[in-house]
Design a protein that fits this description.
The protein is mainly α. The protein is 67% helix and 0% strand.
Length: 177
């Protein structure tokens, strides 16, 4: 499973950003037949999905992450509910395709958030703050060893026996067959 260093690299955050941009595209259309209250709430609910993923990712405990993921999932449900409430109104016929796309993206966000939540709910790791000294030391040692190995492989001279190995080529960012 990949480890992400930034929330912007998370596929679910990217999908949530796409959700918000689709909502903005809809709301920026002239003559969209929604009240200002509906528009404001849809805007806020859609933006809440990506913001809560980001905030949860930046927290240091698993419980905090799970709480923010639950809020994000709830916000994606709110977006879907708002669309379900208005989709059959006669004045909305002109934007049904956009509403359907928004609903599908919100569903995708909810599925990804559920999958992520289930994958970490029973994890023995409770977050960085809860690592005991020996776990923290082992993690730092493993990271240092990995960094040393990558640096060693990147800096091999062309005549070294490992220079053409797949590991060394990968460390240098070259294509590996």
């Amino acid at each position: 499973m990949p480890k992400y260093q930034r929330f912007e690299d998370l596929p679910v955050w990217q999908e949530a950003a796409r959700l918000y941009n689709r909502v903005l595209d809809l709301l920026e259309e002239p003559d969209v037949p929604f009240s200002s209250g509906f528009r404001n709430q849809l805007d806020r609910a859609a933006l809440s999905v990506s913001n809560n993923i980001a905030e949860g990712f930046e927290r240091v405990t698993t419980n905090e992450l799970l709480a923010f993921l639950a809020i994000a999932r709830g916000s994606s449900g709110e977006v879907r509910s708002m669309i379900a409430v208005v989709k059959d109104r006669p004045k909305v016929k002109g934007c049904l395709r956009q509403l359907q796309q928004i609903r599908e993206i919100a569903e995708s966000c909810a599925r990804q958030l559920s999958g992520w939540t289930h994958s970490i709910e029973d994890s023995p790791v409770q977050g960085k703050r809860h690592l005991i000294g020996s776990q923290r030391d082992a993690r730092h040692a493993a990271e240092a060893a990995r960094d040393f190995k990558l640096n060693f492989l990147r800096n091999l001279k062309a005549g070294h026996p490992l220079y053409h190995s797949s590991e060394a080529r990968a460390a240098r960012g070259e294509a590996v067959d």
